[in-house]
Description:
heterotrimer; A: mainly alpha; MetI-like fold; two-stranded antiparallel ribbon; 2 strands; 1% strand; flat; C: mainly alpha
Amino acid sequence: MSSAGKLKRRITVTALIFIAPVVVYNLIFKIVPIFVSLFLSLTKFSGFGEARFIGLENYLRIFGDSEFWRAILVTFQFSIEVLPLNMLISLLLALLVNSALKGMGVFRAIYYLPVITPMVAASMIWIWLYDPQIGILNFLLSLFNIPPVNFLRNPSTALHSIVAMRIWRGAGWNMLIYLAGLQGISRNLYEAAAIDGASSVRRFFRITLPLLRPVHVYVLIVGMISTLQSFTEMYVMTGGGPLQSTTTVGLLIYRAAFDYMDMGYASSMSFVLGIIIMILSVVSFRSRQQKEA
Amino acid sequence: MKKWLLIMIICLALGFTALGKTKVTVWFAGTPEALMEAVDDRLVPAFEKANPDIELAVEYIPWGELSTKLTTAFAGGIGPDIFMHGQAAIAGFAETGVIMSIDSLIDKLEDPGDFGGTLGVGLYRGKNFMVPVFGSGRLLAYREDFFIESGLDPDEPPVTWEQLRAYAEALTIYESGRLVRAGLDIPVSAIDLQQVWTGFLIANNGTLFDNDFNPIFNSEAGIEALEYYVGLIREAKVASEYGLTPIGNLSPIAAGTAAICFMNNESLAAIKEYSPDVYSKIRLSFPPARYERAGFYSFAGFMVSNSTKNLEATAKALAFLTSKEGLIEINTALGSLPPRQSGVEAEYIANDPNLMKFVEGSKYAYGNPNVPFWVQARDIISKYLERAIMGVMTPKDALDGAADEISKLK
Amino acid sequence: MKKNKLRTLLLLSLAAVIFGSPFFWMVISSLKPNAELFAWPPTFIPKAVTLEHYQSALTARGFSNYFLNSAIVSLISMAFNLVFCSLAGYAFARLDFPLKNILFITLLSTMMIPVQVTLVPTFLMVKSFPLVGGNDILGRGGTGLLNTYAGLVIPHIMTVFGVFIMRQFYMQFPKELSEAARIDGASELGIFRKIFLPLGRPAMSALAIFTFTQAWDDFLWPLVVTSDRSMRTLQLGLEVFKNRYTADWGPLMAATTVSVLPVIIVFLVFQRYFTDTALSSGIK
């Protein structure tokens, strides 16, 4: 074998050893349950007793289920509103705290706090914030003589209000990722550009942003997966109302599985959602891949 | 020689009893410290002492997670022998064969007649599935200081629907178009809406379902009840169509943003704890009547799973936990309404005039109907009621739409 | 120059207020007596300070157990992820091997099915794990990995999500870096250990924090996989303070504050690697 061939084989073997634990593990504990769920989606199953095979009936039911498609729209709207703002704010925060100054750690920790504040506390505080009678936001509005807005109960504002909370909650998370990504960019590049006379804005757009591309891909795809599956915020803040304006597909799935004991239908909804997410992810992934090439 | 023999015999005897121990698992809903103390420290040891061959394994599951936990446990074949749940869950569990009928176990309970009407709460398709353990109810609550302010007599709460509306209008305060105080805080969405509106339906001589589980709430009585409810909000404007939200344990009536509301005993107890100065200003009265009064009461109780292995031991545990003493322990810990008539004599109730009022109000009680798909039906009813309240549909169309969608549930 | 610093400080503080105030409100609330908790108008500086809620929370049944369990589960998850996700992420990012992209996309796709529905099948698998917890070789008869630490860590170790972070991070570096090392005669393992492992510190810090956070904050899985009270985790423990219609807000706020502290500590420990200036200048 040529030395190039030997090298190739060495690399392949190393790679396979490196990825083996993760791949095997996820094959067992993630892929198998997914296939079981796929099977369940073809049955009528309450979670107890027998799963009765009914073929594609669940999927046909989804097709005619207006509530499901309404939820898809809500879910997409939620995702579209959250993602760009989230990415922007996280990136700005990361740039802000990207220095080795003393005390920067404290600021980073503060921005990370919303991520780790348990939902039970965060939701209570935001519900208070939004309250039309005794909430701070409406108090501020009243100072400008603006009539009170019932943020969480008015169908036109409910979803946006949850979007704001979600961005607040998720910014610190992506900030960390961007921060890590920023460290991967060589200082030398910045110095060279500075010597050449490039302004900091120009350096940002010409060096930082492009070199962060792999990180963007990550933030976008994980953000998409997470926002499209979201249900906890809606469940806790509005219960899916008012008038189903905050009912996401994730919420419908949860209800079907655990409140209505309709596991089969819940599984089929999950798969439809999962396939949509998959298609979107592959598209984002591929388009970024091509850009990199 | 004799000593060794004696020791051996004792060891064998102990060994046999250890081998012979049957385990009964009981899941309680709710995790308050007082409850765990009452059960773990007093009830379980007492039971195990009286029944040395049975081990009572108790777990406490938070209310919000009951369904998830039960579903996964039963799916895995490791469900509990006895579990507590709200009455609303009976129909679903009975239909899917998760729970067994307790008809055969009733005569093993201590003085079943002592339960009175509450034992009937668990009836589904003619069979009984639940022994009630604790209850909560809703009564009309109002701020006597606001009554006085608006020139109303706090000793004369509203009795009829017309009075309720008139009082609420007198108590409502708007300042430059902003609703500062709602005369009447009534729910406008979710489970609360269905529960409270049903009271108006029943007070108007209507019912939710007929004996064959067909929805009949879209009758004349129902439409009238919904028109009245919607009228309170959209015409009289005594409440906002968006409703009022409690912040933590601060309910609108305690915050002063509402004058009257339908309150349950647990929330009232929270007000006592968290807004003590307001608590003394709150008074209770029975829900207003059209043809009769109707207040929502619900019971949670023990159900027995079909997969229980040792029915005799389970029955014993069930009887013990629902005995007079057992229920007094549990209800004292929870501060809730006892299902047994003898339970009213417990100290914590006798000393609390508000709780006594709740007990008294149970004569007007209505609960959830035990129909198949109740949980879904309830959500559908709420959904359409909300639309009527928001003005998106007329009351008649809303009720017809709900009845229609429910009929399609199979 | 000073104006710049002032402006930065202003921005930092403004952001701190936006992101931090709910948390600080929670802490302040935990120190207020019940009667003041929901007072209107709300008091920003408590009129009366009490430690009674902390006392209730910390002495609540099993609380110290829950804390310990969460700590064990989170630390184990963190350790596993740091080792295995960085290896795998590096391989996917910088080594060529057949079926690389397909394997990666397959792994990614496992993240896309909502957890509500894989919950029951995963639970069944854990319960039927052969030869543990009283199970025979076909996984029948006992409770498998239920109520064990192994069962609790299952969703958090070797996560695809962790592999994804490491892969994207490692993709940022130029190919020449690996190639130069290979020309110099370094072994594959050597390249990873000597060059990319140190370079990976910022991403691994992020990974450590994330894994710890996710394992610490997980509620649904521990709920389902433990029935033994002694194995419960902290998030479940917080539920103890909630009732059917109301909650014990005082002890809840106190317990919540206590539950956030370990994550903050882990965060502060690892976050200094984000500005390890020695690293980024090392690329020649």
